[in-house]
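Appendix B, Record 12. Input sequence as logged:
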Amino acid sequence: MIFKVITVGMMGVNCYIMGDQTTGKGVVVDPGAEGSKIIEAIKKENLDIEYIFLTHGHFDHIGALDKVREFTGAEVVIHEEGREYLNDPSLNLSGAFAHRGFTKTADQFVSDGALIKVGNLTFKVIHTPGHTMDGVNYYEENHEVLFSGDNLFQNSIGRTDFPKGDFHLLVTGIKKKLLILPEDVAVYPGHGASTTIGSEKRENPYLNEDGWDV
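Logged structural output:
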């Protein structure tokens, strides 16, 4: 497995590159900014990027989307609720935080449980809305890797004070869909350090046992 993390943009977004060494096929997760930096990493690994996975439609995760898509020719994947975020600067927050509002487009709009094959890698889409309504995680079971976007962080969860945020919905989704995964699964979030499912079950104050009655 080929695996790279590139921290990009003013918000320090973790952009991930994951590839299958046998076939040379790969994915980019959340090309938030600094497209040239991401492209250089792709060139270095000599990967054929088939898909660009978006964990959600906030501006800091999609800013370099067009540049990376133009270089790779990859198909852009987002949850079906993401259409609204990509089309609305007030929802994707580019109107408030970027120099100017912008919109983006995707090629595939997926739902919870969808499976996407990339070489010998298979990613499962796990929908956990609450930070945004389109928030998803991409889980590669064979390598025990979870790209959690802004849903689950080390000892924290995503903010829910943005438009359409819902704290209860987010916590419920994480507990019912993510914490049931094997404890050794590595969690790679949209910002900050990586963690594991087991660590978050034990130590995350938002997800401790006192709150399991969701």
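The chain is about 25% helix and 30% strand.
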